[in-house]
Amino acid sequence: MNSKQFGRRLKQKPCLGPLKNTNKIKPKNMNYTENYKGIKIDVQSHNVDVSDVVQVEIRNAIDKLSKFTPNINAADFYFKVEGSTNSAVSSVGIRLGIPGPDVFAEEKGDNWISLIKSVVDKLVKQLQKQ
Questions:
Q1: 79 is a domain residue
Q2: Residue 106 pairs with which residues in a beta bridge?
């Protein structure tokens, strides 16, 4: 290798591979909208990745709530994790857009599926009172 080739080689940037920043955790925000059986479902999550299993449970919740009121126009699902890793608190809120005043319920805990079911039970009680 002559001196010109050696000089060119030094100017090349070394390959470091993918950079990993372990000091900062990027918040995961997931928002999506779907139309399920004529009902607009809007899912908003803060610091949460909503899995396929949770999405199936969201549809099951709509099916159950539809038995108590046939006129659901929209359903908004709010998923949030607050706090640090050791003391994180998960919460689920659901707002149903129905004729008249909307109904809303929220629950805090640590399991998404059980939280959704608990919030749905609260909404059913509200719907039965109307």
A1: yes
A2: 93
What SS3 state is found at 55?
A: helix
- How far apart CA 38 and CA 27 sit, in angstroms, is 32
Structural domain count, the chain: 1
Alpha-carbon gap, residue 39 to 35, rounded angstroms = 5
3-class secondary structure for 77-128? EEEEEECCCCCCEEEEEEEEECCCCCEEEEEEECCHHHHHHHHHHHHHHHHH
Domain that holds residue 125: 27-129
For the segment 8-28, what is each residue's pLDDT rounded down to a tens digit? 444 443 333 333 333 333 446
User: Tokens 């959704």 map to which residue?
Assistant: 116
Q: What CATH code is carried by the domain that includes residue 48?
A: 3.30.160.100
